[in-house]
Amino acid sequence: MEHKIEELIAKMSLEEKIGQLNQESIIADNERIEELKDLARQGKLGSCILAANGLAGDCEQEQFLIGELNELQRCAVEESPLGIPLIYGRDIIHGCRTIFPIPLAQAATWDYDLIRDAASIMSREASYDGVHWTFAPMLDICTDPRWGRIIECPGEDPLLGKMVAKASVDGIQGEDMSQPGKLAACAKHYIGYGASQAGRDKDPTEWSDYTMHNRALPAFEEAVDAGIATVMSAFNDISGQPATANKYYLTDVLRGKLGFDGYVVSDWAAIERLNCQGVSDNDLLSAALAINAGVDMDMFDGIYKNNLEQALIQGAVNMETIDEAVRRILRIKFRLGLFDRPYTEDVNTTGRVLTKEYLQKAKEMSAHSMVLLKNNGVLPLKKGEKVAVSGPYAEEKESLMGSWHASGEAKDVVSFFEGVQQVNGIENTLSDCNLAEQSDVCLVALGEDWMITGEGKTMPNIELPEEQVAAIQQAKKLGKKVVAVFLAGRPLAFGDIVEECDAILWAWHGGTMCGLAAAEILFGDFNPCGKLPVTFPRYTGQIPIHYNHNRNEYVLSGYYEHHPYVSTVGDSTPLYAFGEGLSYTEFVYDNFRCNKTDTAFEITFDIHNKGKFDGFEIAQCYIQDVVASMARPIKELKAFQKIYIKQGETKTVTMRLTREDLSFYDGRGNKVFEPGDFKLEIGTSSRHSCFTITEYLDFR
Ligand code: GLC
C-alpha cells in the first residue's frame, strides 16, 4: 500500500495534491452538485461532508440519495486523471436511523460491549447511506454541564473516556474498516474543547499542559492505540494557541508521542476561524499555520484549495508538508478499501435499518444507561396498579433522541407515556395526576429540550425550570407518591425537589427506545445499574465540580466536603457524585485480600447480592498518589468491573494495578511513575468506599 501511495504521489500535480486536502459540503438541495462534479473531474476534491450546514447536530439532516453520491464518485474515479476516490464523511454520533442514548448516557453504562455494539450498528446503518467516515467518537473530557456538548462526551473521567474511545473505534472500524458496514472513525475534538471557559462553546481553554496531558489526552491515546483512522482538530485555543494551529499538540504529541499515522481533519471552517482567534489576518497565513501545525484536510472553508499554491510559491509551506498530508489521506482511503469498492450499492434499506434486533439493542443500552438516584422503596411499581403520568416530557418524542440524531425520526420514538402504557397497560395508565384519585403514584416526566443541548448551546444556569418544580410540587400536594423521571441531556441542578420525590430516575435523552426502557425499569422488568459519568452539582455556582480534583485542606475524603471555615452557608458537596447509581438489590462487598508483586498490586474481593433482584454491579477502584513531584488528585478511578450477580449469589472480583496505571504526566509532558505510598479504595462510587488500604508501591 505504501508503495502504491508513493507511486500516486509521484504522478500527482500540485493541484491534485491540494485537491486531496479539500473537503466540501454537499448542500442538502445540491445546488452545487454540478460544481462539485467539475472539481471531482479535475481531481480538485478529496472529500465531501454530508451535512447541510455547520450545525449538523441541530437540525434534521436530509437523506443524501445514493445515486447522487455514486454519480459524484464516478466523476472522481472514472473521469479524473488519477481516479482517486472521494471519502464521504457524516456526523453519525449515537445512531443513524436507530438512535441510541446520547454518548454521555452511553458512558453511564460503563459497558464496553454495549458501546461497541451500538457503534457497530450505527455504522452499518450509515454505510447503507453511502457514508465512509463518521466524525465520532467525541472524546472531550468535560466538567462543566453549562456546555451544551457535555451530552456528546464520555464524562469527567479519563479512564472512562479511554473505555469509550476503544469501544467506539472497535465498533465503528472493526478489525478491518474495509469490511462492509464498517467506517473510518474520527477522534474529536483535539484537544481540550471540553474545558472551554464557563462552558461557553468554542471559548478558550485554559487547561495547563499538565492538566491537558493527564485529563484530556488519555482518551485520544487510547483511540490511537485502537487504530483510529482520523482525528479532528478543535475550535478552541489552548492557553493562547488555537488547537487548529497547534504544532505541539498536533505534531509533537499526536504523532511524535502517540504515534498516530492517520490524518487530521479540521473542524468546520476552523482554519478560516484562525482569523477571528487573532493569530492570522489573511487566509494564506491561516492555510500555512494549519498545515504546518499538522492539519491535513480542510473542512468546508476552501482555505487550502484557494491558498496553498500561493503559500508554496511564497515559501510559507514546503512540498514535503503537502506530500505528507496527501500520504496520510491516501493511506486511510486505501485502508477503507475505497480504491477497490468506491461505490455504495443502492439497496432498499427497509428491513435493514430500525430492525427488531437493533431496537432491542437500543432499548438494552438505554436501560443500562439509566441511573436510579433515589428510591425510598416506592420502586419497583407493581404492574396492573393504576399510575398517573404527568410533566412536560411525558409525551415528548424528538427530545428523547438528543442532539446529533442524524436521520433518526421522532415517529419511531417510544415516548415515556407510551412506554408506561406498554408495560402497565393502557387502562392502568392515567394521563394526569389530577385524575389520579384512582392511583396513589404519580410519574412526573421532566427534562430538557434537545435543542438547548449540543453545539453552540451554553446555559448560564442549569437549575430546573420553575414550571418543572411546580409539576413535582403539584403531584406532592395531591398526596401522591412522586416518581421523577428526567429525560434530559446535561446534568441539571434539581436539589430543590429531591425531598418531594419518593424516587428519581435519570433516564437521559435515551434514544428511540428510551420511553420503554424507563418504564421497564420503573415496573421492575430491569434492575437499574447505571452509574453517573459526571458529577451532578447542587447549584450552578459550584461548577466546575468533579471528583478527581486536586487537594487542599478543605477537602477531607473527596470533593469539597463540609468544613467549618468554608461551607458556612449551604452545602458544598455535589448533589450526586461521579460513579453513583442505586440498584433495586443490595450488593455487599467483603473478604478483601491483597497481593503485591514487583510488577503489580492485586485486590481480590467478594460481592454478595443480598437483595431480592438479580442485577449488575459496577465495582470501582480509586487511587491517591499520596505524595508526588506534582500535586495529584484527591482520587482517580484506576479500574472498574461490571458484573452480573443473581440474587443470593456471590461473585469474586480481582482488580490489578500496574506501573502504567499509576503513572502520570509531569509538567513537561513526560509520563512518570514515582515509587511511594498509594492509597487504594474499592467502592460503589467515588464517595462510597468499602475498603481502603495504603501501600508502598515501587513497581519495576
Ligand atoms: C461541527 C462540530 C463537529 C462536527 C463538524 C461537522 O462544527 O464541531 O463536531 O463533526 O462540525 O458537522
Number of helices: 16
- How many domains? 3
CATH class of the largest domain: Alpha Beta
Strand order of the largest sheet: 11-16-15-14-12-13
Share of helix, binned: 25-40%
Secondary structure: number of strands: 25
State the CATH superfamily name of the largest domain: Glycoside hydrolase, family 3, N-terminal domain
Range of strand content:
15-25%
Do you know the CATH architecture of the largest domain?
Alpha-Beta Barrel
Largest sheet: 6 strands, mixed
Listed once per kind, the bound small molecules are: alpha-D-glucopyranose
Would you tell me the structural class of the helices and strands? Answer: alpha/beta
CA gyration radius, whole angstroms: 26 Å
Terminal residue distance: 39 Å
CATH topology name of the largest domain? TIM Barrel
Task: Give a quick precis of the structure.
With 700 residues, the chain is α/β, with parallel strands linked by helices. It has three domains: 2-90 and 186-228 and 230-335, Alpha-Beta Barrel (TIM Barrel); 356-539, Rossmann fold; 587-697, Immunoglobulins (Immunoglobulin-like), CATH 2.60.40. The strands form seven sheets. Strands 11-16-15-14-12-13 form a six-stranded mixed sheet. Strands 4-3-2-1-10 form a five-stranded parallel sheet.
